[in-house]
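new request in #modeling-help
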Amino acid sequence: MGHHACPAAAGAVLRDFSADHRQLSINTATVRRQGDLLAIIEACARAEIPAISPWRDQVATVGLDRAVKAVRETGLKLSGYCRGGMFPADPARLVEVQDDNRRAVDEAAALGAPCLVLVVGGLPQFSRPGSAPSKDIGGARAMVEDGIGALLDHAAKAGMPLAIEPLHPMYAADRACVNTTGQALDICDRLDPGRTGRLGVALDLFHVWWDPELYAQIARCGPDRLLAYHVCDWLVPMADMLNDRGMMGDGVIDLKGIRAQVEAVGYRGFSEVEIFSERWWSLPMEEVLSTCIARHRAVV
Amino acid sequence: MGHHACPAAAGAVLRDFSADHRQLSINTATVRRQGDLLAIIEACARAEIPAISPWRDQVATVGLDRAVKAVRETGLKLSGYCRGGMFPADPARLVEVQDDNRRAVDEAAALGAPCLVLVVGGLPQFSRPGSAPSKDIGGARAMVEDGIGALLDHAAKAGMPLAIEPLHPMYAADRACVNTTGQALDICDRLDPGRTGRLGVALDLFHVWWDPELYAQIARCGPDRLLAYHVCDWLVPMADMLNDRGMMGDGVIDLKGIRAQVEAVGYRGFSEVEIFSERWWSLPMEEVLSTCIARHRAVV
């Protein structure tokens, strides 16, 4: 109830996306099957897309140095780096988990990313395969908080903010046991009570659009804890729980309504398109990028 | 955090399910493909299952009178009646929505159900097909609350409590825009502040197991607002968003932990098995029922 009261109350003026795509970023997973990271960077630069958010596996395939060089030469900005996390694990694996996450921080810093996105992991057996099976999601949540806490120092030294991404509850078991914006902000409050800017939230509308508390929790974020903003759409019906995300405008998410709230609390960063979709992966990269641009201008 | 503090704090003693299945109920959708309602009632009675929760479409197929007669003759109890709801709709359809729901109340009363389970509906175009498309989930939620409020009088006259079933957020668009126990209880607080017992919650673990607030919200329910308790399991991976629910014990839900909390707050009703599953629908009815009995005793 009162879902739409906040933006109006705050007198928000939506940034105008219709005239150009200066606020667009492409998460490189959106076209990961059409080419490697260097090809994606080149295609984005050609399409005058100003920013990307690359994935670790795509960086690893071409090598960190070549990725850094390509980003620098094209002048692309980053809107984030995907991803750290997967904290729940057997005790024997915790050193490995921390090492892995420290490397993610260092790569993000080398690439000039504004934040490292954390997909925190679900139950240990899925988060770090080989870990003993558990049904204790409360325990997994405690491991996540411990893991983020242990990473904060290294991230601060690298000057790299950490952005906790709440994932849709349908991924609670196997991908992320942080499933609401409120839960992510509770972690921020406990680990960074001073709101230093070192810890915040990556808000992906696919994951959070359904949340009855969404508008209130966006207000609670404020601009200092809203580190990334991801868009796509929620299709009905959805053919696959993982790889059937929709292009913006093709689903049921009230994209402009939510952006109005995000901007009302002060967000001025990129609108990043992240679409995992067998359909969009099957189309030519240029066609996907031009569709992202058109939809960004028309419906985001 | 503190996920498991409540049951211990309350000194809960779990009811012993291991020796018999006197607390078992079968939601008849679990074996809906293997036979009609009369066949299901007969099979449940043969297996000495004490209770069922039938669906409206199954009742309609055999006729309400025959269903009532079969329930009476076998001495089966009911743990609920599925389902009313689907409130969001175009204004022109609101009379139809109320009529439909009043009939559901009357059928539940005729069958001697202890409550009518409400699956409240999502966006109007999915809740009542033909309604104008909308992306306003806040508006749909307001329609749900209005619809329940309008039904309460009729339900009270029929002596039929209404049980709001929060559905998993992955069904927010097309099936139910009430997606957490907290949200259902907020509606109860507003529409029935006196806690008359006329309005409460149907807690289905498939839908709510992931919720970081689950234990706190169960405590908030109390026994007077906890009207039904449904179990199955959450499989990883899940082949299908609708029809791949797991048999208890085959997935990741901490069934005994959650039941401990439910019983700690005073719940003493049936544990109802509701499984939508292509796999279990493909097996003989007797085999499914005997598996439900065995798992009820071993892992629920």
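bot summary: The CA atoms of residues 60 and 79 of chain A lie 19 Å apart.
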